[in-house]
Specification:
Strand order of the largest sheet: 13-14-15-12-8-11-10-9-16
Number of domains: 2
Radius of gyration: 18 Å
Shape: globular
Number of strands: 16
Structural class: alpha/beta
Order of helices and strands: EHEEEEHEEEHEEEEHEEEEH
Largest sheet: 9 strands, mixed
CATH class of the largest domain: Alpha Beta
Strand content: 35-45%
């Protein structure tokens, strides 16, 4: 497939998670991730701090209600809406409280919504532990269809793929700006939230996050390590509902014209340091 330049750049701005135990989830993200809770009029909770934001609402665990990507201004948002509509994807409403009027959504093949809009408030302040919300990853039984939706429908670019045996694609990594991926999809036996990531500034930040988790007795279940696709350093913990939260550093930035890279379906592709891989399938 020929490489295209991104038509309209967007960045992951916030996520809406469905949670079984709201007090446990808000407590975890307050204490472990450093987010300030605020109850919203619809009884959901906004968890925010610096460059990371989540909306948490009551419901089934490990379900991503929507992912929300911000563009720079209303003109770019209108152009993106037109591009997605031309691809044949129905345009839906958006209920996120964090975007200005004009935000819209599209629904992927698994029935999960992707929202685009212009942020109500520009990012303010900094966090004691740096960690910008940077990418989200889902599990799906239909990797090919989900990939086509993001690439051909939403206009994301394919960065890397993971291939098993004679050519079955098990994972794809897609970007909505020059960073290696803001979305990825892993082959699995059911659709679910796989993980989301906070991007830090350096290796020392991962050390500081690990010390922070240790003080709270939050176990690291994978890492530290280095991913093959994206070449980023990482460690991962789980929230009370079992969602994986990744702390990442030094994610690859993709130059224009860089071809798609193919990786083998193996533990070493997931962790070049060789200390085991979280194999989804």
């Amino acid at each position: 497939m020929a490489e295209r330049n991104l038509e309209i750049s967007s960045r992951l701005h916030h996520l809406c998670l469905s949670a079984r135990d709201i007090p446990a989830m808000t407590g975890f993200y307050r204490d472990a991730i450093g987010l300030v809770p605020e109850k919203l009029p619809d009884s959901s909770w906004l968890m925010s701090g610096g460059q990371r934001r989540l909306v948490i609402e009551s419901g089934e665990p490990r379900r991503l209600v929507y992912s929300a990507y911000a563009v720079a201004d209303a003109q770019r948002l209108g152009a993106l809406r037109d591009r997605i509509a031309r691809s044949g994807i129905p345009i839906g409403a958006s209920s996120t409280p964090l975007f200005r009027g004009g935000a819209f959504s599209a629904t992927d093949p698994d029935g999960w919504r992707v929202v685009f809009g212009v942020a109500q408030v520009q990012e303010q302040g900094s966090d004691r532990l740096p960690g910008r919300l940077q990418h989200v990853v889902k599990a799906s039984t239909q990797v090919d269809r989900v990939t086509a939706f993001y690439r051909d429908g939403l206009g994301f670019e394919l960065s890397d793929i993971v291939v098993e045996g004679a050519g079955a694609i098990t994972t794809t990594f897609l970007r909505s700006d020059p960073e290696h991926h803001s979305f990825a999809v892993f082959r699995a036996q059911e659709a679910a939230l796989d993980h989301f990531a906070l991007e830090t500034t350096c290796w020392n930040d991962l050390r500081d996050w690990a010390d922070h988790f240790a003080r709270l007795e939050v176990p690291i279940f994978w890492g530290p390590g280095r991913h093959g696709p994206g070449n980023n350093l990482f460690l991962m913990v789980r929230d009370p509902d079992g969602n994986a939260v990744e702390i990442s550093a030094e994610l690859e930035v993709i130059p224009n014209g860089r071809p798609v890279v193919e990786w083998p379906h193996s533990e070493r592709s997931l962790n070049l340091w060789g200390s085991g891989g979280w194999m989804r399938s």
